[in-house]
Amino acid sequence: MELQLALDLVNIPEAKALVKEVEAYIDVVEIGTPVVINEGLHAVRAIKDAFPNLKVLADLKVMDAGGYEVMKAVEAGADIVTVLGVAEDSTIRGAVEEAAKTNKKILVDMISVKNIEERAKELDALGVDYICVHSGYDTQAEGKNSFEELTAIKRVVKNAKTAIAGGIKLSTLPEVIAAKPDLVIVGGGITGHDDIKAAASQMQQLIKQG
Ligand SMILES: O=C([C@H](O)CO)[C@H](O)[C@H](O)COP(=O)(O)O
Fold first, then answer.
1. Full-prediction pTM beyond 0.90?
2. Is there an atom of ligand 1 within 6 Å of 33 CB?
3. 132 lines ligand 1 (CB under 6 A)
4. Which part of the chain is the Orotidine 5'-phosphate decarboxylase domain (predicted)?
């Protein structure tokens, strides 16, 4: 099980400073969608150059032009690129084919997917690398989490790795770990903590014990 730090509400210098504090405790750095909107793919390049030993995920949430957009993120240094589960199969195929050329990975974000199990089976057959259940900021504000969805996709996914994102905190991490995802994605649960280093370190410990 790996830990991904999601960076959403920072600029490039702030992102670098945050990663420097917790680099020993995380496996993947996510350049979040808001950061890509504000800073462009330069943010991916800046973090990959500064922390070459960490994997970098570009949270582009690709919805169309899968091959092209994945190509641009990979050129910028991304190891993993996100594509939306609600995208057309042709978009997913284009993304998977493009990433495979350089042994990079596609993580499909299941945000807004209605029939999670059925779509997860289809995505698994399309060869995506990760399937991620996700309660986005707006549904988190309505009290939603994705713990049950994680259990549901674990039942049907045979090849892809599974991931979970959205509002995970130290207090809820044990419940997440019990469902055994391959990747746990945490943003505010680390970056909003009073002691960022301690939060990341405790999360890593819980994950290692899990
Ligand atoms: O993907 C995300 C969200 O849609 C904003 O772009 C976040 O990175 C993801 O939800 C993880 O962040 P937290 O919910 O703060 O843990």
1. yes
2. yes
3. no
4. 2-203
Characterize 22-56 residue by residue with b for buried, 16 or more Cβ atoms within 10 angstroms of its Cβ, and e for exposed: beebbbbbbbbbebbeebebebbbbbbebbeebbb
Looking at domain 2-209, its CATH class is alpha beta
Instruction: Supply the DSSP symbol for 23.
Output: G
Nearest CA owner, ligand 1 atom 12: 187
Which ligand 1 atom minimizes the distance to the CA of 166?
14
Nearest residue CA, atom 13 of ligand 1?
A: 187
ipTM of the prediction:
0.97
pLDDT-derived band at 145, boundaries 50, 70, 90? confident
pLDDT digits (tens, 9 = 90+) for 171-200: 999 999 999 999 999 999 999 999 999 999
Domain parsing of the chain, residue ranges: 2-209
Ligand 1 in reach of 176 Cβ (< 6 A): no
